[in-house]
Amino acid sequence: MVVLILFRDIMLVKEYHLTALKIGQKLLSENVEGSINISISSVSRNLSDLPELFRQTVFCHNCRFFLENREILHYESLRSKSVQQEYKQMVQLDEFYSACRERPGQMLLSLKSFLKQLPDGVGYDMEYVKNILIQTAVMMTYLVKESGCLCPQMKEMNEITQEVEASRTIQEAFQWMEAYTEELQKQCELRSQNSHQTRKILDYLNRHYAEHITLTDLSDYMKLSSTHICRILKQDTGETFVTLLNKIRIMEAIRLLKKGNLKIYEVAEAVGFSNYAYFYQMFKKETGSSPRDYQ
Questions:
Q1: Runs of H (alpha helix) within 117-261
Q2: Closest CA to 246 of 281, 218, 221, 289
Q3: Distances (CA, A) of 39 to 24, 81, 252, 283
Q4: Which residues lie across from 74 on neighbouring strands?
């Protein structure tokens, strides 16, 4: 939820900030359902500054796990002397998130800049750093997925948590993070190399994989002949229409199986396979494992 606070009285800047904090504290005191986080931007007189004020609140929210008080975060306070080192880390983290969203080819470079801001020396224990890496990896996964880049290497939150927690040293945790980011970057780069038509086809398949779609359906959607579609898919991906569709379905099946709240035949139906034996056969071919191995 985004709340725009309008003040009728002219005050000092400090008073605006104090009033916003009081409003935040009131909202916290009235909340009875669980924990919430409130991010407060700086104040401005100009409507043209709204995009920047919104960016500030998102920045606070994304970086909340650097600070002890995570309930109310004020953008102006993040640059105070008491959190100066943390603010540098937050800026680098914000740059990393921007790369995940807008410049996937620079994800690994941005991550390394961020990791340099996380010392493994005095004042930082393993749990603190691991917590930051877990939050960062989860957010990166979400942003990459939001951009439309899906790959089998994409991990669920519980997997990320388990694998980072298994690291025995901060350096091991850093290496895990770099390896995971590199794999996602590689997949995003492969996707960006596809032609506009191929990307449009893949987007369609990713949206409709659970339905009974055929090459004719895709041909009607793209307003291209089936022969032309098969040719550009083979040229850009090296795969046929059926193979690509099955890969997308199996990838989603893996995600559902890892959640563990559906039976195997229910997963098969949920991703578009009406024939369980065929699902099992394709799953084994694509992953080299049985669906039961993912439960």
A1: 126-146, 157-165, 170-192, 196-208, 215-222, 226-237, 241-259
A2: 281
A3: 9, 19, 34, 45
A4: 40
pTM of the model: 0.53
DSSP classification of residue 65: G
Alpha helices in 68-125 (DSSP H): 84-102, 107-116
Distance of CA 34 to the CA centre of its chain: 24
**Do 182 and 108 contact (CB within 8 A), yes or no?**
yes
Cβ atoms within 10 Å, residue 91: 17
Give 234-283 pLDDT, tens digit per residue.
887 778 999 989 988 988 888 888 777 889 999 999 999 989 899 999 99
Residue-wise pLDDT tens digits, 127-142: 778 888 888 888 888 8
CA distance 18 to 38: 14
What amino acid is encoded at 16 in this protein? Answer: Y
